[in-house]
Amino acid sequence: MIVIIKKKKVIRMTLIILAIGMMSLITNYSVSCFNNKQEPFHKGNKENSNHVAITCNVDWGNEYIDTMLETLKEENVKITFMVTGRWADKYPDILMKIKADGHEIGNHGYKHTDYSKLDYKSNYDEIQKSKKIIENIIKEDTKFFEPPSGYYSENTVKAAVDLNYIPIKWTLDTIDWKYKDNPDKIVQRIKSKDMEDSGIILMHPTKATSQALKSIIETIRNNGYEVGCLSDIFDM
After folding, report:
1. Is 55 in contact with 201 (CB distance < 8 Å)?
2. Which among 24, 51, 62, 226 is placed 20 to 30 Å from 6, CA to CA?
């Protein structure tokens, strides 16, 4: 009888140790997804990708998207459009046009609000709501999430990872929302910064961006890199 009790204890302890080990592996995997610092990636994790990715955050600016798509097609470049769920819900035809041109679609949250001020559940609900809307339209999974305005907390990153997203920000911000009528300023800003392998350049659909896009692509190429989307700079 005593032997049986000891065996039961050994089995119970073994199961507990295995459970703790599994939880540790899951935690370590999640943490590794955001650089061990509970932060989004500011650049890709693929070594020697020879690419710089462009992300275009869309919650407004519809009138400039066609011009940008034309330039991207002329230059044979595919980028990542990070769209909000509310925008996608309102303009599914534009979203499908972007997808039809071969561009990658990412999740920019449901609406443009400060996610750093939301608790975990609110972050999760916002990201998931956007995910469902976008994926229902494009009929494929989205892989990347970028918080609006780059505002995030640990809750934001954890919610994104729990929804199987790679959370990202950017390496270089064009600040085109500020220089929306000054394409030269945007180009000068890009040229004044050092390009990084697997770097991420952030832009929006503004008048100045649509005018500067060709020069931005040229600048990236002149630095020895190909222009691409987020999937080109991440090992997934």
Report:
1. yes
2. 24
For 146-175, how does the pLDDT look when each residue is reduced to its tens digit (9 = 90+)? 999 888 999 999 999 999 999 999 999 999
Q: How is residue 12 written in tokens? A: 């119970």
Tokens standing for 110? 């449901």
pLDDT digits (tens, 9 = 90+) for 203-235: 999 999 999 999 999 999 999 999 999 999 999
Residue 87 to residue 94: CA distance in whole angstroms: 10
In angstroms, the CA 13 to CA 8 distance is 9
Are 80 and 170 spatial neighbours (Cβ–Cβ below 8 Å)? Answer: no
Residues 6+ apart with CB under 8 A from 162: 30, 124
Q: What is the DSSP string of 13-73?
A: HHHHHHHHHHHHHHHHHHHHHTTTTT--BSB---TT--EEEEEEEESS-HHHHHHHHHHHH
> DSSP 3-state assignment of 104?
strand
pTM: 0.84
76 vs 62: CA distance, rounded Å: 21
